[in-house]
Design goal:
This protein is 75% helix and 0% strand. The protein is mostly helical and 89 residues long.
Length: 89
């Protein structure tokens, strides 16, 4: 389930590090988190949507890789992002 353009714009504004930032790890993790939330709601309603479950697993894995990259490169930004997104750790 894709997020709407308006929701995507709000997420980008929330996680952007500067005005024209759309590709930083923070923005990518924010967008993936929003998509993961939407997919989780969809999967709860449609238990037998196996391609949807696979897409959810892939998005979670991609978010985990981005978070690992950010923790290796700049642990301060990583800690701030974890708090902002609301993930454990």
């Amino acid at each position: 389930m894709a997020i709407s353009k308006a929701d995507k714009k709000k997420v980008i504004e929330k996680y952007a590090t500067e005005k024209s930032d759309t590709g930083s790890p923070e923005v990518q993790v924010g967008l993936l988190s929003a998509e993961i939330d939407n997919l989780q709601q969809h999967i709860e309603e449609n238990k037998h949507d196996f391609p949807g479950k696979r897409a959810l697993i892939n998005k979670v894995a991609k978010r985990r890789r981005l978070l690992r990259y950010l923790s290796n490169m700049d642990s301060k930004r990583y800690q701030e992002l974890i708090k902002k997104v609301g993930l454990k750790k």
